[in-house]
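ESCALATION

Customer reports they have been waiting on this structure for their group meeting. Please prioritize. Original submission:
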Amino acid sequence: MKTLIIGTGYVGLVTGACFAETGVDVVCVDINEEKIEKLKQGIIPIFEPGLDLVVKRNFEKNRLNFSTSIKENLKEIEAVFIAVGTPPGEDGSADLSHVISAAREIGRHMDSSLVIVTKSTVPIGTSRKVKEAVQEELDARGLQISFDVASNPEFLKEGAAVDDFLKPDRIILGVESESAKKILNRLYHPFLLNGHPVIYMDIPSAEMTKYAANCMLATKISFMNDLANLCDLVGADISMVRKGIGSDPRIGNKFIYAGIGYGGSCFPKDVKALIKTADDNGYSLELIKAVEKVNTRQKTVLFSKIMKHFGNDIKDKVFGVWGLTFKPNTDDMRESPALVIIEQLVHAGAKIRAYDPVGLKEAQKILGDKIMYGNDMYDVLIDANGLILATEWSEFRVPNFKVLTRIMKDKVIFDGRNIYDPAEIEENGFSYYGIGRTHSRNT
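Update from on-call: job pushed to the front of the queue and completed.
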């Protein structure tokens, strides 16, 4: 079976590589010539554990290839996946220009029937627009070629995308014909062998399912963060509350960790897009709007704790920041809470030294010379007035307190992800501030 993937970003590259892993012949297309040449050389544009090995293995076996031309790779293709970017516009709506452009390019050059699948996260109704764009191009060519459209939203977690694709919780497929269902069934057959559920539905419902999933997870995060701030005021510990409610199977224990807010390429964008979709249809999603509002506020909570500890004066204070990416096991810094905190600190006159296991190169593109960058986690804490934990990378979980005591000027830790035990921190002579933790008020 031959499949074409349009877009070699996070979703497109993972999709193409993992389909190839199951024996499908895949061509990944991108207009970025430099990126395509690097992929042919085995240079992966993103950090994603295990992806480089899957790409290299299947490229060497000629099951995975890369090109800049849609036109040259449409022959004998049975399914085309559109996996291009849908960045948010100023009004929060998803920019569909790349999706529609890809659809038009397919319509200009297809010469046999196929299934066109939207893999990008797109607003409800996008598949209809894709179908119209393809048909307009076929009409302009005076051709009558049958084709189907379908929706196959992705549910990949950055840092675990390869496993998520190969061992999915579920596969959502929005189809409108038996012919599309037959082709997609064949494509996903290897996953059916392992008992992973494939859920077929109409296309608008599939498009909505993606947004609903991400907004539900974002809601859980903001709910816990809101409660954590109240815990700070009333003397409760959000970590204990999490254990108490997480044991209820109706609630579950995932995505109920308090912290400094969510970030990344999905949650912020998808929350905004669903709000905009509702507004455009004359309905206000009050709960989802509150989720976004809480998350924006949460990114300022740790800065407020820092200011309070230092008497609202941090001019020329030096802070070592551990973690810059929005989550561990990725180099993605889009909407990272760490960036918001750093900007606040710099604006208040503080000096920042930061370390991240994989995100320093990306951070330098964004922050430039506003801050200094360290070679390791302890290097950034020499003569520092405080440690700020912004991203919970595994290597930060068990710090050497003897080293911290020796190199830090002031013994205070601001734990933005609640990964430390407040009692242990204080037993080692450090002041501790967490998010909704009993000991975070230094009482």
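Sent to customer with the following note: The domain at 237-443 is CATH 3.40.50.720 (Rossmann fold).
Escalation resolved.
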